[in-house]
Amino acid sequence: EVQLVESGGGLVQPGGSLRLSCAASGFTFSNYWMYWVRQAPGKGLERVSRISPGGSPLYYIDSVKGRFTISRDNAKNTVYLQMNSLKPEDTAVYYCVRDAACPGGLCRADSGYWGQGTQVTVSS
């Protein structure tokens, strides 16, 4: 059974940092692209970043370029999202996803495998 378990979310002030982790199990992690997807209140499922099985190439939406870094450790079956210089508009539930279908950058909730999500709130 595929399982994805996110952790690391929380409340942070603008300009702060968080590191999200996603522990994967039930499949050969090193064979798959992995995604971070977020959903802000009242908005769709936005693809934030993705990483290839070997760790490159990478993808980021424009709004997080230079602030977020995706990485993975295939030995630990874990994918990470380092988020720096956080802004209030980064507030969302962040999901770790395998096999996401994201036409035009908005992901289909019925595609792939999803974790339970972790809440990130950026507020003073």
Structure description:
The N and C termini lie far apart (40 Å). This protein has strands at 3-7, 10-12, 18-25, 34-39, 45-51, 58-60, 68-73, 78-83, 92-98, 113-114, 118-122. It is built from no helices and 11 strands. With 124 residues, it is an all-beta fold.
What descriptive keywords fit this protein?
124 residues, mainly beta, seven-stranded mixed beta sheet, four-stranded antiparallel beta sheet, 11 strands, 0% helix, globular
Shape: globular
Average predicted local confidence, pLDDT = 96
Run of helices and strands:
EEEEEEEEEEE
Rg over CA atoms, rounded to whole Å, is: 13 Å
- Biggest β-sheet, characterized? 7 strands, mixed
Q: How much of the polypeptide forms β-strand, as a percent range?
A: over 45%
Would you identify the regions where 5 or more consecutive residues have pLDDT less than 50? none
Structural class: mainly beta
- The helix fraction, in percent, is under 10%
